[in-house]
Specification:
The chain has about 350 residues and is of the alpha/beta class. It contains 9 helices and 10 strands. Strand 9 (about 275-280), helix 8 (about 300-310) and strand 10 form a beta-alpha-beta unit.
Length: about 350
């Protein structure tokens, strides 16, 4: 399996995350990718290539232009305003408040942020652009006939909506890749999100469409981030009615239960008969993940990689979450080797 990767992801190396009432070192850190690369080399999974640069045109196919412009200048604007720390919002347009974008950079942060834990620092925009290029390059390999590709994206993407960032995500790598495959001639794409947290951003982008099926397995939003998205009764709207499938599960869900949910999700993908599958590959379902509450073991990741392979679809894996840092590489590569060995 081909892997697409770039050291440009290192340009995002912020020092602060709002967690538990404190500013702490971020859970989403560059070391995560280093562990994945280490395991990719150990497994000799295949060639690792650099991404092609695609510019903003494919990004703007799924994200609102003013939002993209905001991301591209946010750090410079924050710094120019005299702020000394990293950029974190402190005010949001809550219920019954005006939904109008301010001119102040502090106001813009609140307008475009869906959560307050994710700081913006130098290099954040450059890393986000590079992650989108990684996903687009992997999609191009699929379009050229590859049976599978792994987009080693950082920062992750599935919480980034049409005009929202947060959850460590800025541009939605999986959504950008899906749209690029449609633009290259695919008729239907399925996105299977196995990250512990609901991919509210991916759902947001495709909720009203029938050319992308979105299936997500995740922690019950009554108890888990992002809290306000991912309930089972969110099934799509308008032309997209019935093309979103959310499978939320409670605290301490074991693999046996999670596997049953995956079977339901895979059956829905199979019935949809897409031209390709994109897997939002978060491994924070791991039993020792510090900010999640499912109970998958490392061996379970190999098992479900084999299950996904059973669809026999061209498959793009896009790297998402996973915060038990020392185990992220093993768990990620177990999925990929399970898929390849099926």
């Amino acid at each position: 399996m081909l892997t697409v990767y770039t050291d440009d992801h290192l340009q995002r190396n912020v020092r602060t995350e709002l967690h538990g009432g404190l500013l702490v070192p971020p859970h989403e850190c560059p070391e995560r990718v280093a562990y994945v690369l280490q395991q990719l080399h150990a497994a000799a999974l295949g060639e690792i290539v650099a991404p092609t640069r695609y510019g903003l045109e494919p990004v703007l196919r799924v994200h609102e232009p003013n939002f993209v412009e905001f991301l591209s200048t946010a750090w410079a604007d924050w710094h120019a305003a005299g702020n000394r720390g990293e950029a974190i919002p402190d005010c949001w347009p809550a219920r019954r408040m005006m939904q109008r974008c301010p001119t102040s950079i502090t106001g813009k942060l609140g307008y475009y942020a869906m959560a307050g834990e994710t700081s913006i620092g130098p290099g954040t925009w450059e890393a986000a652009q590079a992650a989108a290029d990684v996903a687009l390059t992997a999609a191009a390999h699929l379009d050229a006939g590859a049976h599978a590709a792994f987009a080693l994206c950082r920062p992750p993407g599935h919480h980034a909506g049409y005009d929202l960032y947060g959850g460590y995500c800025f541009l939605n790598n999986a959504a950008i890749a899906a749209q690029s495959l449609l633009d290259r001639g695919a008729q239907r794409i399925a996105i299977l999100d196995v990250d512990f947290h609901h991919g509210n951003g991916t759902q947001d982008i495709f909720y009203h469409r029938d050319d992308v099926l979105y299936v997500s397995l995740h922690g019950d939003p009554a108890e888990a981030f992002p809290y306000f998205s991912g309930y089972a009764d969110e099934t799509g709207s308008g032309a997209g009615a019935g093309y979103t499938l959310n499978l939320p599960m409670p605290r301490a869900t074991p693999f046996s239960v999670w596997q049953q949910a995956l079977t339901v999700g895979l059956d829905r993908v199979r019935a949809y008969a897409p031209d390709a599958l994109i897997v939002s590959l978060g491994v924070d379902t791991f039993e020792n993940d510090p900010i999640s509450f499912f109970k998958l073991s490392s061996a379970d990741f190999s098992t479900y990689g084999r299950m996904i392979a059973g669809l026999r679809l061209p498959t793009l894996f896009a790297f998402e979450g996973g915060y038990a840092v020392a185990d992220v590489g093993v768990n990620t590569v177990n999925v990929l080797t399970g898929f390849e060995g099926a």
